[in-house]
Amino acid sequence: MVQSSKKIQGVPEPTIRRMPSYLAFAEGLLRKGQQFVSSTQIANYMNIDPTQVTKDLSYTTIVGKTRVGYEVKALVDVLSEFLGFTIMDNAFLVGAGSLGSALLHDSGLSHFGLNIVAAFDVNSSTIGKKFNDIEVFHIDQFRDLSQEMNVVMGIITVPAENAQTVADLMVAWGIKAIWNFTPARIKVPEDIIVQNTTLYSNLAIIFNKLHNDRKEVL
Amino acid sequence: MVQSSKKIQGVPEPTIRRMPSYLAFAEGLLRKGQQFVSSTQIANYMNIDPTQVTKDLSYTTIVGKTRVGYEVKALVDVLSEFLGFTIMDNAFLVGAGSLGSALLHDSGLSHFGLNIVAAFDVNSSTIGKKFNDIEVFHIDQFRDLSQEMNVVMGIITVPAENAQTVADLMVAWGIKAIWNFTPARIKVPEDIIVQNTTLYSNLAIIFNKLHNDRKEVL
DNA sequence: TTCCATTAAAGAAAAATTTCTCTAATGATT
DNA sequence: AATCATTAGAGAAATTTTTCTTTAATGGAA
């Protein structure tokens, strides 16, 4: 079988997943005024192996000093830059329902390099409303607005059964990356980046552990 | 180094992550009236290897029929059950800010076995409000309400720097599992289940691919 | 009925990721 | 100044996860 999204020997995804936590930790230390942080200290905080930390950080440009560690300020800068949180990308969100409007409210996203410029829906009761200064338009206006604004990312927060339709629409109007919050798996051309984020998967993982513990206590 | 959360030879996490998508697919087929589905068909939908599907499903009780596949209805039932979506668990949410209130609005969660019974915050402007019929209390009332209600899960949606404080509080009042939406890593006793869900990690993965593509076009 | 194509399932092989081991460097202590 | 303890970093080993291979079963076509 042909692999659909071949990794071009990039940074391992688990590494990228850990980095925002390194960043959060470093930001905390910066606030506290700590100047240096060792890989051991970061590892303790993360509950992982110290060598994992140095390996992860070796993908960035930062270098640590023996017996001292990494400079906290530099770590914050390097990680923010590396994770793409310093570049602003414009995004459209489709599906201004419960989860969608939630994301619109989350001004945190704008601190991490994501600028949602408009939202779309088919539900007439939400169209015309504004969440956090982001207006909700009818999906039919998607085409016109795509051309006006420089939008690279599409966020899908519609019901799972409509995910593919929305994805097709996004691809048709030139979107480069899709952040899919539905459990549905969408089909798109090879060059489109897709990130599936299913909150319910995380829930399933918790339940699995929780309900297992109930059965076999050991 | 001692592994903090030793897996007791359970189901691989990547498997559990894929299952909600299998479920969504099966539910779609059920709506369309399809009776059987082959591992090949599921694999096509998921863009993964068919043997991955059979291996994943082998962790459940379902067995497929040669040359026919899995019964769709049974698949839906078995997966819902397996993922813990049929058992209702009560949860508290702490931090009714942008992301927190978003989750409160997401009635989807209740369809997946999670019942958020109350929310807490320190911000007086949100206290007393109701989102989706869930009331926001002052964090000081956490103790009293924990005892009244049978709450097994705590959801943390406060700013990263307050995550540990909230986690300590949850542990103190008998919560079994914590769903942590902050990039901060919290320290809890061994027997407490922690699931970290950092939206910004997913964002970082997209940016990584997106910005890399901009540089090295190949 | 007989054969064929398709399928689930089990086990082996490969790939990816994490952990372990070792080395060199250097700030702190004596 | 000399020694020691701690650290980053590189590479090897182990583990985990995915993919490949093989086998057995069986519904449908000839």
TrEMBL record, chains A, B:
Keywords: Cytoplasm, DNA-binding, NAD, Repressor, Transcription, Transcription regulation. GO terms for biological process: negative regulation of DNA-templated transcription; response to redox state. Belongs to the transcriptional regulatory Rex family. GO terms for cellular component: cytoplasm. The lineage of its organism: Bacteria, Pseudomonadati, Bacteroidota, Bacteroidia, Marinilabiliales. Residues 84-185 form the CoA-binding domain. Homodimer. NAD(+) binds at residues 95-100. It is found in: Cytoplasm. One of its GO terms (molecular function) is DNA binding. It comes from the Bacteria. This is Redox-sensing transcriptional repressor Rex. Modulates transcription in response to changes in cellular NADH/NAD(+) redox state. The keyword NAD applies. It comes from Labilibaculum manganireducens. SUPFAM superfamilies: NAD(P)-binding Rossmann-fold domains, Winged helix' DNA-binding domain. InterPro entries: CoA-bd, NAD(P)-bd_dom_sf, Rex_DNA-bd_C_dom, Tscrpt_rep_Rex, WH-like_DNA-bd_sf, WH_DNA-bd_sf. Residues 21-60 bind DNA.
